[in-house]
Structure of LacI family DNA-binding transcriptional regulator:
Amino acid sequence: MSVATVSRVARGVGQVSDDTRRRVQAAIERHDFRPSRLGSGLAQRSHGALGIVFPGLSGPYYSEVMGGFEEEAVNARLAVLILGTHLLRESHELVRDTAARVDGLAVMGGVLPDELIDRLRDRGDPMVLLASRPRAGIPTVRTENLSAFDRLTRHLLVDHGYDRLTFVGDPENSPDAGYRWQGFAQAHRHVRAEPPAEPVRVGLTQSEGFIAVNRLLAAGPPPRALVCANDEIAIGVVLALLDRGHRVPQDVAVTGFDDIPMAGLPVSGLTTVHQPMRELGRETARLLLRDIEGSGPTAVDRVLETHLVIRGSCGCGAA
């Protein structure tokens, strides 16, 4: 029996006699054979591409993650299709169209509704969730957020003795921001302090951080520390405080999350949490490739380590 005949039966195409089809199908079931989607796709040149879905395409975080993802795809001789949805409802059809044109799809958490994720999974499309809350039956890659933000917040509460902290960011904006808000509240409970009931809800961009400070200062004196959901917000916060004549960290301490390159510049000196953004993209692509090949686990929750980076914006080393 030829390889071509087995391939036709496995793919359900071409003309094969009923008797031959029954014998091949019995052998497939006996050996639990599963064809490699990656191998067949490359052989047929049907797709030769991976897809990745983000809420937007601007900013250093997305650039680093996409860079790592693309590195692994290029090593596998695959192209990358990048879709920025900007969280628009009409983008759902674009996602379904993209999924049909690639060998596998990586989706950032919070971008698509759960029901669409489940439909793509149930359709059998290889998929990995990126920076997402885990979902049954779908591989997930994320970084450790909750404990890291707990450590950062306790550094401000315990090591510096600050007693008025405000979280700047929207926990509903992304799963990562939600975990960070939980870590912020958890740190307060650990030291028997009452956490703020609500954060200052803004988006994850520098301009949103600038707007947040202006809103806070219009309402009254600023808190002793502004604990931002990411570095881009934090940099916008610092710029707004300096613009209003407030000193950082002497008057208001500021912290971020991500450790983007700008956070480490002497002019920024931002205390933050380092997360391996490029490795996050690489590991997402690796898991997706294994899912396509059928050689990886059907569901895995891969959590990458993060660590606290102390610089001057929290008050350490400040005169």
In short: The first strand starts at residue 49 and ends at 54. Residues 206 and 236 are 4 Å apart (CA to CA).
